[in-house]
Amino acid sequence: MAAPTLGFVVLFLLCVAGKEGGESDDPKALPAKQSNSTSSSLAKFLEEPKLGTSWYDPRGPTPNFVANQTNGTSYATRLGGDALLDCRVTALEEDLVSWSRLERGGVPVVLTVGFRPHSAENRFLLDFEPPNNYRLRIQSVQWRDAGVYLCQLSVHPPALMWSRLTLVRPVVHLLDGDGKPVRDLHYDSGTTIEMQCRVRRPPLYHTSVQWEVTYVDGGEVAVLNQDVTRGGVKVVTGRDADSGQVVSRLSLARARASDTGNYTCRLVILPREAARRTGLKDTVSLHVLRGENTEAIQSRGGGGPRASFLAPLLVFMIADDRVTYSS
After folding, report:
1. Residues 146 and 188 in one domain
2. Going edge to edge, which strands form the sheet with 209-215?
């Protein structure tokens, strides 16, 4: 005869315990006061799992990662936002899961142990999502947070699952006064020079841009946001409510030949490891003409040069390709 199943044995013991206590034959109706250790253990087993306790039979299989979870999952987030890295496990134990980050040289740095943070930075937290997701929450993501993260189970031998966090990097575009892409600008002496700088996917925290110019005459570099010598410099920076882009507008009154140079718009407060990356600044060349019968001449970045000469006898028009920047 086949051995009785575990479920049958449990049901039998429960029924016996109920009858001995003088209560209903219904196995769910447990006595109000129960000294029987078997019934007490069973009642505890039937409770909803609570954080920090086990919901699997301690005599059962070793905890492991759920079957549909794989190594190398990639997560992307904006600077200043929160990142959530998943780690789904087949058990619920207080000290079962720990999170680490791989530093240079492959050295792991522990971030959380169990449900407790283990980092000097309070931005790394275990954000448990029922029923089985030991998520790592990284608050206010910074440049240095990009990299490989390890979810480790305290079993023998240890089990690891790794994920990668990447950053959705900002991109800076320097445009003409009408918001069109440009590589070269030409203005008449005495007119007002206008440019604008747009930052796509900017950090979610407060950020701004810096305007710099390297003058052709002498090679001097000046920060226009802090102008105290030229005069007539106006910088207005804000965040576009519709696109979320950071938009900065620069205007220089009474253009003069000495304004000729390379103008750069860059994100400010960048760490050393990010300052050299492409896309975080943009530059155009400005030429101030001494003539009196020309308007702004612009060489578009999206196609061939485009020029307009409003002279009494001649008009040249060269069409350019359109370039669209989305938020």
Report:
1. no
2. 221-223, 209-215, 261-267, 281-289, 184-188, 297-299, 305-306
User: Is 146 part of a structural domain of the chain?
Assistant: yes
Pick from 301, 299, 302: which is nearest to 287 by CA? 299
Q: Is residue 34 part of a domain?
A: no
Q: What is the pLDDT along the chain (327 residues), one digit of tens a residue?
A: 444 433 433 333 334 344 333 333 333 333 333 444 444 444 444 444 454 444 454 445 678 898 888 899 999 999 999 999 999 998 888 888 999 999 988 899 999 999 999 998 899 999 999 989 999 999 999 999 999 999 999 888 889 999 999 999 999 999 999 999 999 999 999 999 999 999 999 999 888 899 999 999 878 899 999 887 889 999 999 999 999 999 999 999 999 999 999 999 999 876 766 666 667 899 999 999 986 555 555 555 443 333 333 333 222 222 333 233 333
- Beta carbons of 213 and 266 less than 8 angstroms apart: no
Show which of 149, 168, 187 is a domain's final residue.
168
Instruction: Please tell me the pTM assigned to this model.
Output: 0.67
Burial class, 90, CB count within 10 angstroms (exposed 0-12 / middle 13-18 / buried 19+):
middle
291 and 199 within one domain = yes
Phi/psi of residue 181, nearest 5 degrees: -65, 145
**What CATH number is associated with residue 120?**
2.60.40.10
Read off the DSSP letter of residue 250: E
- Cα separation, 47 vs 26, in Å, equals 18
- Number of folded domains that form the chain: 2
Structure tokens at 192: 């007002």
Token pair recorded at residue 129: 């999502």
The arrangement of strands across the sheet holding 246-252 comes to 171-176, 193-200, 246-252, 233-239
Enclosing domain of residue 107? 73-168
